[in-house]
Amino acid sequence: xxxxxxxxxxxxxxxxxxxxxxxxxxxxxxxxxxxxxxxxxxxxxxxxxxxxxxxxxxxxxxxxxxxxxxxxxxxxxxxxxxxxxxxxxxxxxxxxxxxxxxxxxxxxxxxxxxxxxxxxxxxxxxxxxxxxxxxxxxxxxxxxxxxxxxxxxxxxxxxxxxxxxxxxxxxxxxxxxxxxxxxxxxxxxxxxxxxx
Length: 196
Fold this sequence. Notes:
The protein is built from 8 helices and 7 strands. By secondary structure, it is of the alpha+beta class.
């Protein structure tokens, strides 16, 4: 068995729920693991197409490099390399401020829901800047919920339905934005649930 573990938002995950990197658990696991990380989500560098891929097994690493070259990605994005290096070397202060801001947006979202939308529960995040909102107590089917949010609230969230049956009744919202934008979105969600 081969495991490819992508950790694009590692910096966010470590803050709330630190855990080991799979390949660090044992040499045997490391031999069968590809670990992929990047500065993309943490430092908003996704368009620069740079990632870090750790492959301990030399035979597997050679096969990976051959496939990467065959796909046309043999040369990295030079701007991406410099941006990634700058983010890792000099981005700690910015990242610390960002994490504090995100924590504040989580707190404010929680308070808004408790005060204004008691039928919606915040699922406490374990990492990243996407919050899950449990709207199942609103008394709507998943389809009705999605339609109310779009048509009555003029809002677009990630419907939990796109993640399968277990996601029905849930919505996902991005909190990596100014509080004024997030608050406006929450007000639109309230409008959607009150207008039914």
